[in-house]
Amino acid sequence: MKNKETVFVCNNCGNEFSKWMGQCAGCGEWNSLKEVSNKFGGNKKNKGESRLARTSGKIDVKNLGKIKPTLDPSLENGGLNTSVFSTGITEFDRVLGKGIVQGSAVLFAGEPGIGKSTLLTQLIGKIGGLYVAGEESAEQIGLRVKRLGLNANNFDILGTNSIEELEEFLDRTQNVYKIAVVDSIQVMASENASGVIGSVGQIKESAFRLIQLAKKKGIAIFIVGHVTKDGDIAGPKLLEHMVDTVLYFEGEKNGDLRILRTTKNRFGATDEVGVFKMEEKGLREIKSEEINLIDNQENKIGSAITVIMEGTRPMMLEIQALVVESFAPMPKRIFAGIDYNRGQLLVAIAQKSLGIPLYKYDVFISVTGGIKIEETAADLAVLGAMWSSYKNLPLNVKSPSASPLSPLTKGEDKKLPVYVGEVSLLGEVKKVRSWEKRQKEAENMGRKLVEIRNVKELKGL
Ligand code: TYD
Ligand code: MG
């Protein structure tokens, strides 16, 4: 097949297509395909030759039984010394499983400015390593190291955009580094691929070579990848299937909370998260009791408190809704922090089960702290916030017309409510996993989980 000069890459799932489509056939996302350059093999020397150059003339079959127990037998030394070592940062270790696996390739993705360089600088500050700086000068990194109060002796800075230069450098420095950070993949390029820096061809070739380097040299390589919202540059999604571990660094740039999440890990589970705060002197690890994102004063109109699980840890946060009469022919649905399709579904449930005439209302939903909710446990809170905004009353207060003998006037029930539960299409509220942990977290904050069986009961609260 003739290699096309451009391909269309989905920003959401990274699938490639030869022609443009309005909806990605891979993941179903709309308007996510972007045209990007796809030139390979521009270098004459390598034309016609397989990109997978043989490393030696010998073809060797290994019997698995004869290989000593290792994590990765493709390592140069047979993986005999393959080890896992700590990052020196507890929250980072937690996300990786136990720590960094020797010779692994880790994609470290996140939006520009979120703190990727900062955290990886702190990592090298702790355990020492090579910083391949494609974006910033050694002086700039030096300033950051100083600002963060780290030991400058732990840093070797290689300022280059060339994969070949990095390969040559690592060939000359045998077994010196345990880790290397490449900041970022979008500015690395190889002579073996043509196309401008940042094109799909360059990114894929560079990543492929970095992964080979990691295996061959036994160096754990952290590959920084910027996630761009409008996606002019091919994003890290392209690389997810190539690397061993995929980490996403998230948060709201205006806020200071950052969450480190793993979406793929060949060496461990993917259900733990690390929580950090961006401060004057870099990223600080946050303990469980510090990660509540609510002010505990009162119940506000259009607000509902929920407890989500981040990994194994509960985290309280606030869902806000604004339900207002619409002047547009198609009412607006704008959701920040919850999945768009889930949001649409909850709007439909609110219309059917709570009887809100949402076909003529705009709905805006947001989640505090810039957190993206990935579980359905917050469904009930989203519906509660919508109901409160629609009725223009805080959630636990009965409407003025209701009986003055509200149960809320009695002792125990004065505790402010927290809404946790998955909501079915029929409006039934289902209990979710880790109920007790969430309950305890709510209690710690002087609140309690509301127990209802159907969203209709929100009307009576
Ligand atoms: P950076 O690590 O450069 O982001 P990325 O590599 O993901 O693009 O972080 C950039 C932001 O972090 C910048 O706006 C300043 C802020 N910051 C702090 O608040 N404190 C610090 O100690 C550092 C180093 C950065
Ligand atoms: Mg950076």
What does this structure look like?
The chain is globular. It folds into three domains: 1-38; 71-286, Rossmann fold (3-Layer(aba) Sandwich); 303-400 and 408-460, Ribosomal Protein S5, domain 2. The protein has 461 residues and is an alpha/beta fold. A nine-stranded mixed sheet has the order 8-7-9-10-6-11-12-13-14. The protein contains eight helices and 22 strands. It has helices spanning 90-96, 116-127, 138-147, 163-172, 200-217, 340-353, 379-391, 435-444, and strands spanning 6-10, 16-17, 33-37, 84-85, 100-101, 105-110, 129-133, 155-159, 179-183, 220-226, 245-251, 257-265, 273-279, 282-285, 303-310, 313-325, 333-336, 361-367, 416-418, 422-423, 429-430, 447-449. It starts with 5 loop residues before the first strand and ends in a 12-residue tail after the last strand. Strand 15 and strand 16 form a beta hairpin. Helices cover 20% and strands 25% of the residues. Bound molecules: thymidine-5'-diphosphate and magnesium ion. Magnesium ion (MG) binds next to helix 2.
Helix content: 10-25%
Low-confidence stretches: 40-57, 69-80, 399-411
What amount of the residues lies in strands?
15-25%
- Determine the mean pLDDT: 83
Terminal CA distance: 64 Å
CATH class of the largest domain: Alpha Beta
Work out the radius of gyration: 26 Å
Number of domains: 3
Structural class: alpha/beta
**Strand order across the biggest sheet?**
8-7-9-10-6-11-12-13-14
Helix and strand sequence: EEEEHEEHEHEHEHEEEEEEEEHEHEEEHE
Indicate the overall shape: globular
Q: Please, what is the CATH homologous superfamily of the largest domain?
A: P-loop containing nucleotide triphosphate hydrolases
Largest sheet: 9 strands, mixed
Cofactors, ions, other ligands = thymidine-5'-diphosphate, magnesium ion
Number of strands: 22
Count of helix runs: 8
CATH architecture of the largest domain: 3-Layer(aba) Sandwich
The CATH topology of the largest domain is Rossmann fold
